[in-house]
Amino acid sequence: MPSLFLNYICGKPATMKKTHIILLVLIAAAIAVLISFMGDVTTYDTVTSAKEKPGKFVHLIAKVEKNSLDYDPVKDPNYLSFTAVDSIGNSIKVVYRNTKPTDMEKSERLVLKGRVEGNHFECRDILLKCPSKYKDDMNAAKKDLGTAVNYETK
Amino acid sequence: MEFIGEHLLPGQIGQFFAILFLVASLVATVAFYKAANTLETQEKNGWIRIGRISFLLETLSVIAIFASLYYIISNHLFEYKYAWQHSSRALQVEYLLSCFWEGQEGSFMLWSFWHCLLGWILIWRAKNWEAPVMSIVSFAQFCLATMLVGLYFWGAKVGSSPFVLLRQEGFFDAAPVFKDVATGELRKDYLTLWKDGNGLNALLQNYWMVIHPPVLFLGFASTIVPFAYAIAGLWKKDHKGWTKPAISWAAFSTGILGVGIMMGAAWAYESLTFGGYWAWDPVENASLVPWLVMVAGLHTNLIFRSSGYSLKSTYTFYILAFLLILYSTFLTRSGVLGDTSVHAFTDLGMNVQLYLFLNLFFWIPPFIAATSKNHKLIVVALFIGLNVLAHFYGVFTLVSTILALVALFWLLNQDKNLPTIVKEENTYSREFWMFIGALIFFLSASVIIVITSLPVLNKLLNTNWAVGEDPEGFHNQVQIFVAIIIGTLTAITQYFKYKDTPKPFFLRRIAGPTLIAVLASIAVAIWGGIEYDKKGVGFLIAIHLGVFAAIYAVVANASYIQLGLKGKLKMAGASVAHIGFGLFLLGILISSSKKSVLSYNTTGMSPLKIGDKESPLENLTLVKGLATDMGKYMVTYVKDTLNPKDRKRYYEINFKSKKGDEKFNLYPDIIENNKGAEGVTPNPSAKHYWDRDIFTYLTFLGDPEKIKAADTSTFRNTNVRIGDTLFYSKGVMIVNNVTVNPSNTKYQFSQNDTAIALNITVISKEGNRFEAQPLLQVKNGSIYSIPDTVMAQSLILQFSQVKDQTKGLLQIGVKESSSVLDFVTLKAYEFPFINVLWLGVLVMVVGIVMSIVQRVKQMRRIGSDSRVG
Lengths: 154, 869
Known about the structure:
B: about 50% helix, globular
């Protein structure tokens, strides 16, 4: 909000105080911080657009291809691999060096944070978006009711 | 149409009181407004009486709404949407209250309840300021009431009622089971099929969740008081009078909001799997930012009271703190954070209403600050105009918000009645350094909120920016500098006097504490073992500087109580709070920079990658019964038990120190998610020492069903004799002897049975020994083979048959499989000195309470003096 403070200074340039100078310096620092933040900012991508910028950190929005999960916690709990498919149908192999998030297979939408390295996507972090868990829990419950699995027998 | 078994009365009562709440708060707003604008005493008192009566009605309504909803939830009336959505029969009674906070309606109710309570304190104590301040509070109450009524005006739904029935929402429409076959309508007895609720989110089933939301919401609610005082000051053009009572309220707000936030941190630490207490999650940031601004406002307010400087800043900060609270409510409740936050909130389709509520409050301050009629008209025109535009182009919501702030600044600057001092502050004055501190707090808050608002900007500007690779690291790298400067300022500022301080006097007194702090932090640097190198040398140096600043703040404030206040503890509230703040910083710096991963795993890692700083290989798999090497400890997964009361499954993990005989158990647990969500939610467990915490949580559980399906291995049969040694993939086994009718902990056979057991010793490559006892039994003319398993070695042994009794030849079956494995995968951390952090919070609160008590006493004394005089 630098413009708001400029009033103080521009209004009376003759009475520029020490606090005003410090203020300007601090605001400059804050803006520098924000600019450097925007420099780090990345984008949400599809498989194709992520492949076009190998090595760049991106957020890939995709879901897991059925039966492509490979995870054996006894052998190595820190290795999970699967095939991610985006909404257009393009796919890429994903390697995630961490445990398999619970119910990842059931998640309708994943946000995969990481970068394309060689022919696979090296994933740093996975965010699950299950419709039932988040926004549309009423709708999801209604859908369940439609098939009336839980309540019919009770 | 009537339905069998429905309880409509509590809902009707609740709905009635929701509407009464709406009406009463509107009446109270008008009455207090009239009272504030009337000079004639009798008329004023009349309006005040009406205002108070309406406020009483308002308070009673809020309590009645609470009681009705509590009745509905605790009696499991699942025909109500709120009860169905947020509770279930299995829920423990302790967590019934948590159901309130899970939904948006419940949190708004809680918020308005606290407004009521604060309102009565204001009515009791605010004297001349009662009317204007209470009209602001009542107006906010009116806005909250609109969120709860759930009425339709010209087709637009206003608010969301917690008393709505599921069937009213058309919930059963898609389910044929609930339909009457003849009419196609909902069955009259549909409730006989509808027995249980959806359940409370598993994460909220934690004792912190019973207490954290009420405290946090009291913090949220309390920010309205400094805001209302500031608005009242502008409104009554009494720019000085309001700043006195506002100090105590701002201090209260700082304390309670701080405690609320830190309780959230404690909850995150104890029940979330962030692996810590703070993750710079948008929801956390959204409540931290108003706190930072409130602290800034509190300090500029103190400056103004003592020196006459910084009035405009005080106005600005108090107003902004409250607006930021509203903004944070909008952020967390509108669902806009969807892709960036782990916190899940339900979008009730009230975003337009939430936004209008927010934007209206942004335009109130400039409207009040406008001194001429023309200016007021322009403000109104801008508010309406920009929001009409915003209806068509979303980006104007942003324009409207920013312009409202610009207008406020401009108008404050225009106001000739505002007392300002043209003369520059002295560098050797307390106000100068306090002001710098307040500014830094404010700018730190600005940086955090802009970054947190990225998803909002995306929505408004149609961009698709995502935060970079390591947002936490980014925040840490920025805020460490804030910590260094603020810590140092906290240390030195009290040693300055207001207006001017003789230089030698200042230097002489600050010298001692400075020396102690320098020596202490050098000692920490040498022996403290802070070697956080993930972000480079620069950041490590910054951490050490931060440690110095934190120690400096503690030492300097402690000695100030002695030097500056001559040991008068009564007056030392501020110093005590600052000591707490210093300890708090120190706790953050040490526990985060020295946090170490115990479950560091090198399995399957290429030698090149070992020692990679960014390596995320922090998960370790523990096979049941097998001691596994984990840093300083040998760790064993002993067993798991289901506690039927809280429905959590506890995993007993035994830690045994490699040196010494320290031994303890941790019990991380999992709880099944509520219906509608799949799977389980893990909760951490920690062993608390005075100087560190050992902290662990489960990151993966074997799913026996799935692994079984994949198990295709079969028994491999071998002929053996007693004394033979056999190899398997992970070691050897020795066939020891045969026991007839064994009787031990595992089997109890008597003389009448026919059973022979084979005693086998399994020795793994690592040298671990296990005993196995497969057995053959003859029962009712058939032979049964009962295999035995060695869990830790994924080994199943079967005594298949006696091949040749004369030669002593026996046949055993060996099966190696993953299906027998009972295991858990977990992460474990060590947090050193995390107690310093919690202690710091406590000391800070004690200091704040001390200073509020002191101030209230002082005001009372002055009050009684003037009455006598």
